[in-house]
Amino acid sequence: MSENPSALSSVPAAGARRGLPASAQLRYFYGPMDCGKSTLALQIDHNHARQGRHGLLLTQNDRSAAPVISSRMGMGRPAIDVTDQMDVRRVVRDLWAQGQRVDYIIVDEAQFLQVCQIDQLAELVDGSDVDVYAFGLITDFRSQLFPGSKRLLELADEVTRLQVEVLCWCGRLGAFNGRVVGRILVKEGAQVMVADTAPGEAWDVNGVRQDDDVRYQVLCRRHWRAGDLGPGSAAQDVLPMSPS
Ligand SMILES: Nc1ncnc2c1ncn2[C@@H]1O[C@H](COP(=O)(O)OP(=O)(O)O)[C@@H](O)[C@H]1O
Ligand SMILES: Cc1cn([C@H]2C[C@H](O)[C@@H](COP(=O)(O)O)O2)c(=O)[nH]c1=O
Q1: Tens digit of pLDDT for each residue in 181-193?
Q2: What is the pLDDT of residues 19-38, one digit of tens each?
Q3: Closest ligand (CA of 188)
Q4: Which residues approach ligand 2 with their CB closer than 6 A?
């Protein structure tokens, strides 16, 4: 691994500032869709950048279909779209070769990264003292771990569940990312299908047309298991209308 110019820069890593060994960390922030992960990613980037630290922003398959980290709060920042074949260490090395510092890396939609790419991030933390902040879902629409998320749980120095509560339609805490096709909750299909929690949007992601009839709905376990999408769902629609 080539030398990190950050170590030579005027803003050394936190540990080095105190004369301690390098103290970079791999931190993983997770939560269901719509809980504020991208917003927090942008806030952390903002706070580091304003202290003169240099960040590298990565994402994969952002909802906006653009290479950006985008928050539903309306903010967004350009990011590198990580392809499956990309060696993240190479991206960092290339920046160093151009004389650019990389003090920290922010990765949004980290659940989509390959297992080997999570290992590469850990290598950047341990070998080059680069802080890594990863944000993503932990489980998919079947409530199974994404491989990238599993690897983050295995490797991260710190794992944090976001505190912003996303509620199921019944008012319980929602932790399950239900995939809704038409008006039906599905439990089979491709693991990756980019879509929003808002209905009726369609776009191309990496040249692949996404199904405009697919959306996600965060549910509690009880209603995810039952496939009950609440008032306005298919089950409700077939009920006879009450006379006016
Ligand atoms: N109009 C709004 N007013 C206040 N908060 C909002 C509004 N729209 C979205 N949000 C907040 O933004 C969160 C979604 O943020 P986002 O970073 O896009 O989520 P994630 O990346 O986890 O899917 C919502 O949970 C909500 O807290
Ligand atoms: C559950 C689940 C989600 N996805 C996609 C849907 C969205 O494009 C992203 C999550 O975005 P957010 O920033 O957390 O709102 O992931 C998927 O492809 N497969 C799934 O099972």
Answers
A1: 988 999 999 999 9
A2: 566 799 999 999 999 999 99
A3: 2
A4: 33-34, 37-38, 63, 137, 140-141, 177, 179, 191-195, 216
